[in-house]
Amino acid sequence: MTQIRVRDAATFLGVSDDTVRRWIEKGALEATADASGRTVLEGTEVARTARELAVTPEPVGSPRSSARNRFVGLVTDVVLDTVMAQVELQCGPFRVVSLMSSEAARELGLEPGTVASAVVKATQVVIEAEPAPVLGTDA
To answer: What integer is the mean pLDDT of 84-106?
Structure first.
């Protein structure tokens, strides 16, 4: 099982180290000590909590869709030229950038400060994982 230190769990959960420690103290998260005596949480526990905390607001009147990857956020930047537009959204801790026609960006009224959704439906998504630590080292 993957063990995650308190500070890393806090980063993944988008909260402070102190918040994770308070959750552990009141029993909302289960923690143990690793071989070095540091407080760690099981990766599955952190993943479960992250999923519970990740409630994405649904925009009012949003259509039903088969796409499962919907990121609601604020438009932070729009760069238009004669043909194309680059639209940047801040969706919680995630920056999402989309390229579209300038005509589409204008028709959607996209400008900094407006609420928008990035809907991703892809046939390929690249997942990267941290390299496994070498046994016998303190990584």
So the answer is: 91
